[in-house]
Amino acid sequence: MTHADATHSITAALTRARSAEQPVEGTPAPRPRPTGPSTTLPPELDRVLRLSLAAGPGGRLRPVPSAGALHPVDAHLLVGPGSALPAGRYAYHPLTHRLHRRGPAPSTAPPGTVAVLTVTVEPTAAHYGHRAWPLLLLDIGHAAAALALGGCPAVCLDAPGPLLAAAARLDATDAPPLAAVRITADCPPDALLRWAVHEPTNTTNRTDRTNTTDATDSTDATDRTGQPPPARIRPARLGQGAGAPNAGEPADTHRILAALGQCADTRHHWQPAPPVEVPDSVLLTRRSAPPPLLGAPDDAQLVTLLRTAAAVHPGGPSWCVATGGPRPALVHLGDHGRLEALATGDARPTLAFWAARQRWIATTGAMLLAHGCPDDAPPAQVRALHQGAGYAMGHAQLAAASMGLRSRPIGSWQRADLGAAIGRAPGRDWVLHGLAIGRQPDECHEGDDDPS
Ligand SMILES: Cc1cc2nc3c(=O)[nH]c(=O)nc-3n(C[C@H](O)[C@H](O)[C@H](O)COP(=O)(O)O)c2cc1C
After folding, report:
1. Does the beta carbon of 139 lie inside 6 Å of ligand 1?
2. Which of 31, 177, 179 is nearest to 95 (CA)?
3. Is the CB of 436 under 6 A from ligand 1?
4. pLDDT, position 448
């Protein structure tokens, strides 16, 4: 596909995802999971994955939120020399919180561990149809945020798909890779490039054997044979089930995500994760509050949320908040860091309509909004703004929790042309993501949230 073709097809897919067209629900294919011998995680990986991607006890799906609770994001860990584990490529199994060895490391592998994040498209595409792919980009951003909040030093939201695939040894039928996270502090910024180096098999086998002798007791016996059967995450074949009502959506979603990651060079940027001092218990118990979310945050809290979202991902989407109460308005941070009105009046009923008619949004205390991404945005910008919106919203949700506020991410937006709604040029400034926010029930005042 040429660059012009890719841009054209992404523009068309974006227009369709933002339209009123209802998705047709399909039948999700069985979720692929890593198989084969597995090993426990060494301490430097155990904590951060437990705080971000691991399923928890008592039916807790994951610490990270996800559209429809479908949790499509998986992590491939590239473990360099010097770890307690033999260097190599591993697939992380979120349900067992164990690693499955997929293959050896190249001799160029750097120290430390880097994760390549992929999205399994089938469950989300089966549920949300043509609206799935923007949600998957938001989910990737939330997963990267969860890893950053768990203590990882840096995230990369713009690495080209082919570079990520080469580093993690994934092919076109695997779940598309869309982001990377440096898990340990000793992992250098050129980690992806060094993992992507292709070497003849005999060289890589030597690397594997060398490192296998370093294996600790945390590695299963089957992993110490020197020839572990490589485990692979295999998604259902693209186009499988042709003839079913929704057969096209998973394949289309896969194709769109792959096209978004296409890039001719290997340039990418690491963004340092901001230092966050949050007790592990807060990360592990974070939940999306069930609606309704009543009671407006105060102005200082709104400033903190807007600042957090903008600061963690400079160059990302724009941010504003819709508030209710006695002076309903759409506010953003002005040049002097103070709240300024973009528009007056109550935007919440319109937001409720745009967000797949989720009526409770009309009375939510406030809605933090990531917006931007014009109709004709090039593919790289579409990807960056959606992933950035999810990443920053993950940080904002934790900031809300730290201030004692309740919150819930909102991901599906139709005809949500915010710019046009406030009198600007249409098609330039769309709602990408939202965070509905409310106070604790015992702090709400009667009538505060009445949109009438
Ligand atoms: C990208 C994204 C979009 C979401 N969209 C909605 C939404 O439109 N409506 C809603 O009620 N919840 C939405 N959620 C919240 C999920 O339903 C919630 O994260 C999931 O059920 C898991 O629950 P938990 O966050 O409490 O762990 C969204 C979450 C994410 C990350």
Report:
1. yes
2. 31
3. no
4. 56
Give distance in angstroms: CA of 139 to centre of ligand 1: 10
Q: Could you tell me the CA-to-CA distances from 176 to 116, 150, 254, 313, 370 in Å, in that order? A: 10, 24, 7, 23, 24
Provide CATH 3.40.109.10 ranges for the chain: 287-443
In this structure, which residue's CA is closest to atom 13 in ligand 1? 410
| C-beta of 65 in contact with ligand 1 (< 6 A) | yes
pLDDT value at residue 245? 36
* Ligand 1 neighbour 67 (Cβ under 6 A): yes
- Please tell me the distance between residue 423's alpha carbon and the centre of ligand 1 in angstroms: 30
What confidence score (pLDDT) does residue 445 get? 64
pTM summary value:
0.91
The finding on whether 60 has its CB within 6 A of some atom of ligand 1 is: no
Q: What is the pLDDT of residue 6?
A: 74
Thinking of the domain 287-443, which architecture would CATH place it in?
3-Layer(aba) Sandwich (3.40)
Q: How many Å lie between the centroid of ligand 1 and the Cα of residue 64?
A: 10
pLDDT in tens, 95-132: 999 999 999 999 999 999 999 999 999 999 999 999 99
Q: Residue 290 C-alpha to ligand 1 middle, in angstroms?
A: 10
Best probe residue, ligand 1, of 52, 66, 397 (max atoms within 8 Å of C-beta): 66
CATH topology of domain 3-272: NADH Oxidase (3.40.109)
pLDDT, tens digit (0-9, with 9 covering 90-100), for 19-78:
999 998 888 778 889 998 999 999 999 999 999 999 988 777 999 999 999 999 999 999
Nearest Cα to Cα of residue 148 among 180, 111, 178, 124: 180
Instruction: Tell me the CA distances in angstroms from 32 to 65, 103, 104, 361, one per residue in order.
Output: 20, 18, 22, 35
124 lines ligand 1 (CB under 6 A): no
Ligand 1, atom 17, lies closest to the CA of: 68
Answer whether the bond into residue 37 is a cis peptide, omega within 30°: no
Q: What is the pLDDT of residue 201?
A: 61
Under-70 pLDDT residues of the chain: 1, 201-248, 445-452
**Sign for the pseudo-dihedral over CA of 388, 390, 393, 395:** negative
Residue 248 pLDDT:
61
The helix (H) or strand (E) run that includes residue 192 is: helix 191-195
